[in-house]
Amino acid sequence: MSSGLKIQLSTFSRNLIAYGLSEVTAKASRLLVVVAIARSMNAAEIGIAAAALAGGDILKSFTETGVNQRIMSAPNDRLEATAATASRIFWIWTLGLFGVQNAIAAFIYQTGGSVPLAAMLSLLSLEYLFMPAGLVQAALAMRAGKLRQTAMISAGQISGANIVTAILAIFWPGPLALVLPRIIAAPFWLVAMRRLHPWQRDRQAGFAPLKPFLKFGCNVLGIELLKAVRLHADKLIIGAVAGAEVLGQYFMAFNAGLSIATSFSAAFSVVLFPHLATASDRNAVLQQAVVTSLLIMGPIILLQAVLAPVYVPVLFGAQWEHLGGVVSILCLAAIPAILWSSAAGWLRAHDQSGQELKITFATTALLAASTFILADDGLIALSMGYLAASVLTQVGGSLPVLAKALPSRRIQVA
Fold first, then answer.
1. Once rounded to an integer, what is the mean pLDDT over residues 162-184?
2. What are phi and psi of 74, to 5 degrees?
3. 10 pLDDT exceeds 90?
4. Looking at per-residue confidence, does 19 or 101 come out higher?
């Protein structure tokens, strides 16, 4: 292996650890919110809150359009034009989402729906106003290798908002406690990103064609929407079929187990794409990245699964002790997610997001079907179904891609 590739992979490992710690910090701070809710709300109340949060997260998935990845993978001679087109798309799209969310809030209010819900949706839409002025800078920073800095900014934003939310949930419980911290944190993210990698449009460079953005973005948007549905549809199904109390227990187990464990695969996905997009030998980078990530993440995920019966009652209280086994099973679903993240990153780097969309759809459909069938059979059955569906679709979808991408060669770990 060349020294250049070794250096690149060493950088990948450092960035992976940085983003992994960032994701874990964010999820750990989210856990503080869950702990605060667990100490002050019963399972049925938590279930109602979980349904609302799931719906909001699905709506927010529409911000993931793949435009930032077009910036990261653009050739140097077309970078400025690509960034200019991306900036225009970011502004139009996010302002459009701001309008759509407020229209939904107005519809809920006008039709006699929940006034607090309408107000919360409208207030949450303010977050979209802070996004477009910093998204190009964030993508350019990642392209320039500043992944550890962007990880720190993201972790600071999310963790700060979650800590404030947890405090408000204890001392000033109510809907605004879940909304205000997110709005307060948004301008801090914007200022930090613009200072990290300043950028202004080069008017002489013009604009890149829109068609490649649309072709790539439609697939990526579908993928990200399906990811959000995959992560949250099970909660909506459980709430509809089994009731709010079962949903509340499942929500607690999900956040104590899979939510934290999958933060590693999320970090892996974020870090891998910029390396693949700029690598001269993408197959070699992918091979090393898969092995390195499994060696780093695998033991941690397994340790979390083993310790779940111990930390669940400590964090949430003795009344939640029965969720320990459920948390252990859900943790294990993060391992197939790592394999699929690697395969999906390779597909995107080779402009094959359509294939990623198909496999993501299959995963989402099977997980939803499994949840619907097993919703009345208890939490252990639900978690086993989730794990089985994840292994079948994510490992099954990853192996053909990895077999094609990775030639037979001696595996080396940088």
1. 75
2. -70, 140
3. no
4. 101
pLDDT at 321 over 90: no
Burial class for 105, CB neighbours closer than 10 Å (0-12, 13-18, 19+): buried
**Hey, what are 266's tokens?**
């999320």
CA distances (Å), 292 to each of 12, 66, 275, 339, 413, in order? 9, 26, 14, 12, 6
Please enumerate in sequence order all residues whose Cβ is within 8 A of that of 195, keeping only pairs 6 or more positions apart, or say none. none
Residue type at 114?
S
d(C-alpha 371, C-alpha 364), whole Å: 11
* Residue 360 to residue 337: CA distance in whole angstroms: 11
pLDDT at 155 over 50: yes
C-alpha–C-alpha distance, residues 143 and 273, integer Å: 10
SS3 letters for the chain? Answer: CCHHHHHHHHHHHHHHHHHHHHHHHHHHHHHHHHHHHHHHCCHHHHHHHHHHHHHHHHHHHHHCCCHHHHHHHCCHHHHHHHHHHHHHHHHHHHHHHHHHHHHHHHHHHHCCCCHHHHHHHHHHCCHHHHCHHHHHHHHHHHHCCCHHHHHHHHHHHHHHHHHHHHHHHHHCCCHHHHHHHHHHHHHHHHHHHHHHCCCCCCHHHCCCCCHHHHHHHHHHHHHHHHHHHHHHHHHHHHHHHCCHHHHHHHHHHHHHCHHHHHHHHHHHHHHHHHHHHHCCCHHHHHHHHHHHHHHHHHHHHHHHHHHHHHHHHHHHCHHHHHHHHHHHHHHHCHHHHHHHHHHHHHHHHCCCHHHHHHHHHHHHHHHHHHHHHHCCCCHHHHHHHHHHHHHHHHHHHHHHHHHHHCCCCCCCCC
Query: For the chain, which residues make up each domain, given as ranges?
Result: 3-405
